[in-house]
Amino acid sequence: MDTIAIVDDDLISVDTIQALLKNDRYSFLRAYNGKDAQNLLNIAGNQVKSIILDWMMPKMDGIDLLRWIKAQPHLKNIPVVMLTANDTMEHIREGIEAGAYYYLTKPIQGAILQSIVKSAIRDFNLKISLLKKIKEGENVFRLLKDGEFYFKTISEGKGLAINLANTSGIPEAGIGLNELFVNAVEHGNLGITYDEKTLLVNNNIWENEVSRLQALPENRHKSVKVCFHTEPDSITITIEDQGKGFNFDKYLRLDEKRVFDTHGRGIITAVHYLSRLTYTPPGNKITIEFNPNNMYSLEQENPHPDFVDQVPSL
């Protein structure tokens, strides 16, 4: 059973949130101000899969608590859903910069709350599962100097991400690679648009639609090409799908509009875990370069997201 921490100074609001989520079989931890939440998370943070956090609270407000959470190595990867009655762009931007990838505005709508929390926990569980498989896996790929790989399905891409992550010696690299591989299949080869995925995720039919599209004659033989090359102090990975490309620039950072969506954080996640990403227009090819001795780790501070480049059109 997944555990959610609810942090809000309004007892009625806490009760309401818990009641709206009770049918999804969660367990709950509760705190009524930021200071109490700090104590709670220090004791039981390893049990928590998501935090629902009110912005305005006594003793320590939500934004300060969020910054504290993101500075703690054992808590920083827990997805935080910010609750706010103020949905101005300036307000939301402050939350994004502090690390909030999920937003809900008051008054709370039950269906949206359920969908956002489910998405946040799904993303968190996927990351933890990937890390576990990478850390438990064999490291034979560390012997690889050059390689060319082709995969067709999201499942195959996940397996490749796990193996390639072992080359860096930093398991978290696999999270970023997996996100890019998923994008290459769903948005690249299958042509699922952002708006279409929103509907599919909200209706819980995304996986079924991906399987249906991959079985179509026009998609059956499409693959994603991955090239891998190592030097003594660097690793280069190139990912190329068979799609038409996309406007990648708008997805390199989380904007104020998409924080209310249940998806759309894949490239942001990749930027978070990988050192340098370079998209080549029209957007169906991306190159990742990193030094395996200087990679992001869960024990380090978050890297700054400005290490993202764009190759000029030729």
Question: Can you summarize this structure?
Answer:
This protein is an alpha/beta fold and 314 residues long.
Account of the protein in words:
It comes from marine sediment metagenome. It is a single chain. This protein is an alpha/beta fold and 314 residues long. It has 10 helices and 11 strands. It has helices spanning 11-21, 34-44, 62-70, 89-98, 110-136, 154-168, 173-189, 194-202, 206-214, 266-273; strands at 3-7, 27-31, 48-54, 80-84, 102-105, 146-151, 224-231, 234-240, 276-280, 285-290, 308-310. Strand 3, helix 3 (62-70) and strand 4 form a beta-alpha-beta unit. Helix 6 packs antiparallel against helix 7 (173-189) and helix 7 runs antiparallel to helix 10 (266-273). The longest helix has 27 residues, at 110-136. Residues 296-314 have low confidence and may be disordered.
Task: State the secondary-structure class.
Answer: alpha/beta
What order do the helices and strands follow?
A: EHEHEHEHEHEHHHHEEHEEE
Could you describe the largest sheet, including whether it forms a barrel? Answer: 6 strands, mixed
Count of individual beta strands: 11
Distance between the termini: 52 Å
Query: From the coordinates shown, what is the CATH architecture of the largest domain?
Result: 2-Layer Sandwich
Fill in the CATH topology of the largest domain.
Answer: Heat Shock Protein 90
Radius of gyration, whole Å: 20 Å
Q: Give the CATH H-level superfamily of the largest domain.
A: Histidine kinase-like ATPase, C-terminal domain
Average pLDDT, rounded to a whole number, is 84
Main sheet strand line-up? 6-7-8-10-9-11
Strand content range: 15-25%
How helix-rich are the residues, as a percent range? Answer: 40-55%
When the domains are counted, the total is 2
Secondary structure tally, helices: 10
Runs in which pLDDT lies below 50 for 5 or more consecutive residues are 296-314
- Tell me the name of the CATH class of the largest domain: Alpha Beta
The rough form would be described as globular
